[in-house]
Design a protein that fits this description.
By secondary structure, the protein is of the alpha/beta class. The protein folds into two domains: 70 residues, no CATH class; 250 residues, 2-enoyl-CoA Hydratase, Chain A, domain 1 (Alpha-Beta Complex), CATH 3.90.226. It has 15 helices and eight strands. Strands 1, 2, 3, 4, 5, 6, 7 and 8 form an eight-stranded mixed sheet that branches. The protein is globular, with a radius of gyration of 22 Å.
Length: 337
Amino acid sequence: MGAAETTAEQAERRAQTARYERLDFELPLVELEEKIEELRGAMARDGEDLSEALEKLETQRQELCQSIFAQLSPWQITQLARHVRRPHSSDCIHALISDFQELAGDRMIADDPAIICGLGRFQGRGVVLIGHEKGRDTKERVRRNFGMPRPEGYRKALRAMRLAERFGLPLVTLIDTPGAFPGIDAEERGQSEAIATNLLHMAALRIPIIAVVIGEGGSGGALAIGVADRVAMLRYAVYSVISPEGCASILWRDAAKAEEAAKAMGMTAGRLHELGLVDTILDEPLGGAHRDHPAVFKTIGTYLETTLAELGSCTAEELVQQRWLRLRSYGTFQEAS
């Protein structure tokens, strides 16, 4: 009896944990999904035909999900971009890349687990992958420094970039970071120099470069692996010069105004696409990427396949020239009379 009670308690804790992982605006959807699961459980347990009622609830779920996600605010999209169940770089690499061989260390100081990089095959074609990695559980997040790289992480990434150019392999980067680590030790080891060096070298690499923002794209920490020939974003990813909390702390000296800051910053995929800073918006499954990882991997894989074929027809000189013109085109201004 005690073992049964323990199992029930464990099940309850798992259910509570799953609920805590839901965002506030998702709660009505969660309640409906719980009813659907209860109905399925009753059908399996009692053998009663409740398919008509189940179908009705599934229709309600679809309509509610569409209603909620059709009117998300920039702050709600930011919360989705940070969702604990959202696919990470390691998940994308595992799903899309075969024979992946990870590289470690910057050959100067140490390895930085906040950045994953290595060589592998995408649909039989050799590629080099670089991605931020936040980690899943608490222990892993601490080891990965919550996806905030130090200088050695960016220098490791630069090592992989040079390797890609040496062997004529296309470079794919997966962006998902709150930003570069702002600690004193990172500054002492040349954080800003490491980021600037990556920007300089990426602009001149004589290979195709594709960047995909899969979660957060925070500040120079994201841009350090984000200079590319093509930049794509998942529908509910964000990309900005600073986090909403950081922006609110500077402008209003109150991080609690992050929601207001997110609205003003224009950090969503739709707004950035309007401004020409992002080439393609990759649609997510209804309800967000955290609800259907395989569908997200399929979308990213299709985009990579198409874009690699497109860039493969360009010479090295054309790639560098087009990338330079792309970077020079960012931003507009008007002269006052």
